[in-house]
């Protein structure tokens, strides 16, 4: 028995000693996995509140990108309040609603350094006010009264023709919508609660007897009132009286593609076709605005702002295509917003009918910067491929460029005559 007690006492003493050492000796973390120090002055903490600083703030679906940029959800007005929850490279992640996340460029958002909102719930206490639908001589308007400038997303729909506006960060407290007889294009407006902090606004549009319904809409803030401005279809069935902007792609130091055989530059060829198209449209009675009429390099934001101010009835951007695969040929047209698609469809149809070219397709939801505006119908025309020997021979022929301009013009005229 004494032998067993001594053994027990020895084990007990060893355990007590080990416990004491564990309390006094710090745990050693290998250098290879030691975390880097975080400097509070240089690493922002999230979530925080921020506001957009540009009336052309890009709102993206995700953080991915390609040569056209990220997949764009919306272009936000300035001063829009955003709940910033993180950062990935040069993009802030923002929470639009409990189940809605988007990304914005860091350079287009000003963070409020005193606005740490970690304890704030994701749901919001913002409430909508009452709305008014009205019109003037050119446009119809929906005025949505809000307590602050909240983020939004819009889209066009056809069959039925309407606009959809998703408003984030607010709950419904709208008890009436006043519709005045001055509104001519808007048939009615209503809303649905899609979830916490997510309201869907539906704007039903009256269609003309002939031609397309969608002639553009603009979304912007007047103080804290969100305005949806809807352009009415112009009268008539021709191009006469329309203001049509023609954009010659590239320019200046932005040369675009180069002909594989001739060495001719895309910027020069697009300007030539743009001038020929302008002549055709002028003879058809349109008022033409050339976005550039010289070898100048206008960055996308400058072009967009100029067209916002001009507010044409239609914009056509002229380019020529190119590919690393020299066997690729054909012509194509591009659109982003569904209501503007007829313009690109009929222009492509006329090019295929009148020119000795192959079809490269009618491409939708295209992320080209001049396809993004909703203020006016727009389309991108890509002529044949400068990288293909056969296509390049066509492009460098002035007679072909004249026929190309005429085909584009005839396609635009057909849209005006649609039933």
Automatic annotation (TrEMBL):
UniProt keywords, alphabetically: Hydrolase, Signal
Matches recorded under Pfam families: Amidase_3 (PF01520)
CC terms in the record's Gene Ontology section: outer membrane-bounded periplasmic space
MurNAc-LAA domain location: 304-413
Top-level taxon: Bacteria
Top-level EC class: hydrolase
Gene3D superfamilies: Zn-dependent exopeptidases
GO biological process: peptidoglycan catabolic process
SUPFAM superfamilies: Zn-dependent exopeptidases
Reaction(s) this enzyme catalyzes, per UniProt: Hydrolyzes the link between N-acetylmuramoyl residues and L-amino acid residues in certain cell-wall glycopeptides
EC numbers for this chain: 3.5.1.28
Coiled-coil blocks: none
Molecular function, one GO term: N-acetylmuramoyl-L-alanine amidase activity
Leader sequence residues: 1-22
Protein name per UniProt: N-acetylmuramoyl-L-alanine amidase
Species of the source: Fibrella aestuarina BUZ 2
């Amino acid at each position: 028995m004494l032998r067993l007690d001594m053994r027990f006492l020895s084990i007990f003493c060893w355990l007590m000693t080990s416990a004491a050492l564990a309390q006094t000796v710090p745990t050693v973390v290998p250098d290879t996995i030691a975390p880097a120090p975080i400097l509070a002055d240089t690493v922002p903490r999230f979530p925080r509140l921020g506001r957009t600083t540009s009336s052309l703030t890009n709102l993206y679906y995700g953080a991915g990108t390609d040569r056209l940029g990220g997949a764009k959800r919306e272009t936000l007005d300035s001063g829009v309040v955003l709940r910033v929850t993180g950062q990935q490279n040069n993009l802030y992640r923002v929470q639009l609603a409990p189940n809605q996340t988007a990304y914005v460029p860091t350079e287009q958002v000003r963070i409020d350094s005193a606005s740490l909102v970690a304890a704030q719930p994701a749901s919001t206490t913002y409430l909508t006010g009452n709305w008014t639908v009205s019109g003037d001589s050119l446009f119809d308007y929906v005025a949505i009264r809000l307590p602050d400038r909240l983020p939004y997303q819009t889209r066009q729909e056809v069959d039925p023709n309407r606009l959809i506006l998703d408003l984030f960060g607010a709950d419904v407290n709208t008890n009436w919508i006043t519709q005045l007889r001055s509104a001519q294009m808007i048939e009615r407006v209503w809303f649905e609660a899609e979830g916490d902090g997510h309201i869907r606004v539906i704007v039903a549009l009256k269609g003309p007897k002939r031609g397309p319904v969608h002639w553009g809409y603009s979304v912007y803030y007047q103080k804290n009132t969100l305005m949806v401005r809807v352009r009415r279809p112009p009268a008539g069935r021709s191009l006469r009286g329309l203001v049509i902007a023609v954009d010659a792609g590239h320019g200046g130091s932005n040369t675009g593609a180069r002909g594989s055989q001739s060495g001719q530059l895309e910027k020069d060829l697009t300007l030539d076709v743009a001038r020929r198209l302008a002549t055709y449209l002028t003879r058809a009675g349109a008022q033409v605005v050339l976005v550039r009429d010289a070898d100048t390099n206008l960055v996308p934001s400058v072009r967009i702002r100029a067209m916002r101010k001009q507010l044409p009835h239609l914009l056509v951007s002229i380019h020529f295509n190119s590919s690393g695969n020299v066997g690729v040929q054909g012509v194509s047209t591009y659109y982003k917003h569904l209501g503007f698609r007829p313009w690109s469809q009929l222009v492509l149809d006329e090019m295929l009918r009148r020119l000795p070219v192959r079809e490269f397709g009618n491409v939708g939801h295209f992320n080209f910067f001049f396809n993004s505006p909703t203020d006016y119908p727009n389309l991108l025309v890509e002529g044949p491929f400068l990288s293909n020997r056969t296509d390049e021979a066509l492009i460098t022929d002035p007679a072909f460029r004249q026929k190309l301009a005429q085909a584009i013009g005839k396609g635009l005229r057909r849209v005006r005559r649609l039933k």
